[in-house]
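Standup, Tuesday
Yesterday: got the pipeline producing structure tokens again.
Today: sanity-check two examples.
Blockers: none.

Example 1:
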Amino acid sequence: MFANLHNLSHHAAWRRQLEMILESTGEGIYGIDLKGRCIFINEAGAVMLGYTPDEVLGRPMHYLIHHSHADETLMPVHECRIYQAFREGQGVRVDDEVLWRRDGSSFPAEYASYPIRDGETVVGAVVTFNDITERKRSARLQQEANDQLEKRVRERTAELTVAHDNLRQSNESLRRLAAHLNSVREEERRHIARDVHDELGAALTALQLEMSWLRHRLADDPALGGKLDSMLDIGDHAMQAVRRILNDLRPGILDHLGLWAALEGLLLDFQKRSGLSCSFVCSPEIERCRLGRDAEIALYRIVQEVLTNVSRHAQASRVELRVSATGRDLELLIADDGQGMRVPRQPTSFGLLGMRERTLALGGSLEIISSPGKGVRIMLRLPNVIA
């Protein structure tokens, strides 16, 4: 029925147009009848397979070019997907098989097979195919490049992970070292304060007592009495200086009355020395809370550093210290109405670095909120410290 496909057109001109279309395409195109025999093939397809068109016509195409898989194992004709087009009347597209040349070599091929119908009857199939060797080669090279890139990314990621872990361990070690140094420094301050109090304080007190006794004995001598009065004033100033130094080294009120009384005293003393208006607000529930010696001295030093920065740089007229609780979290706010500043992404001054490290050592967070002309707000949070 289909043996004379070239006679389907009754006009030689139309047949010539069909032949020109077949020959002008770069794809291989051939047709088969229901027995799988080639009934036509274009020049491009024949060349791709290593034949001339006349050598292919009438031959069973499966056994000629599609007989084996890429690994050279035989492909039974009932597994041939080209035949599916007329066996099931459905088209099929394939790009994972090979076709075989005349010289016995194979090439990866992309092919499509579609049924040819005469009315409702399938009378054969038409197959278009391409040699996709270069495409496969490009895909393989691209896959190899991707695999190599992924390997390098994995290796680099592993290196960065190790470096990050080492850096994190180094940071943790440095943080522990900083906390230890702060602890050692505070302990040394405590020892120095105790020695100054016990020795220098006692000596100054004894000296004042002796000069007071001598002043009473020389009450009748105005000249010597005036000199002793001057010496007593110097002694008073020296005692005040010693008390101030002792308070800076280790505020006794911190050990005896706790952090909140010490902060209130610190703020009052700052108000006297600076002339700024200072306010301290602490809720009753906080006043009953003790945080432990290390945490309390750390918070005291942070507030002390903030007040030092206010006096040096802020040009403020008012300072507020507010302590409150949110659930079990402690919040400490220090705010001034000074000239403000641009907050750096990372602290650069040793004062800010010290405040941050002390806070991190306590497991808390420190946030600095400011802009030029808007004052400074420092919010310190310690989680889960309120009993």
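Example 2:
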Amino acid sequence: MPRYLEEIDPAISAEDNIKNMCFTKGAMLVDEFNRIFFDIFLRKSETYKKIVSLLSTGDKEFNEICDLLNMKYSGRILKYLEELQLAGFVRRDYTWQLKTCKDAKLSKFRLSDNYLRFFLKYIDKNKTKIERNSFDFKSLAALPGWNTIIALQFENLILNNRSYLWNILDIKPSDILSENPFFQHKTVRQLGCQIDYLIQTRFDSLYVCEIKFSKHKIPYSVIEEVQQKIDRLKRPKGMSCKPVLVHVNGVNEEVEESNYFTALIDFSKALDGDYST
């Protein structure tokens, strides 16, 4: 990371820096992925690349990964995933039983390295144009599918800095029984549900955190969206839910006036170094 920071020119804009570092022939971040993967994984680097490419579009369960790779469910694929975890590129997020706080068998694998996602979605696909210095980079917003990708990157940023949320919500680590992205499968007894980030405390409280990145202010419809997730969440009686919205570009006035959310966390303040609410 310090080496990458040395490449940034503070005299030019962020997007010009990205153009120079990511979309210019011979630039460091154009070839960094291949150097990293070859150095770590050697001859099997292509297999690992296929796995992280699948995860670049979103979290996936083990069976989904095997199906998409058209490979048998085996310890071999699991070993590849474990090695990607050890290298710091992938994280395995376990869901858990709310009644017992014990980890469930269900888990999803998440690409935890934001550079890899950006490389696979934009640099790698335009490598030949970059080598010919013919890639026309106008802006990040002009990149195909950018809104979807930046939403995944933002969610990943939050999950990699979850202790910041604890601080804002005034939750002591010693009071947390379990925390992670949470999901439950649809069965005859329950509906399917997926929560961006859930914190369970020893006070029988669940902090249901919705992570939203939008270039516009978050609309009032987010309340109905979050409430639907809470309604589907199978939890013991007496366990309270505290909805939390993490955003970066503000919320509509109606959202603030509703007082629905326990906390509205503007993560742009964290990026600016302001840790107050």
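Quick observation on example 2: The domain at 2-99+107-155 is CATH 1.10.10.10 (Arc Repressor Mutant, subunit A). The chain has 13 helices and seven strands.
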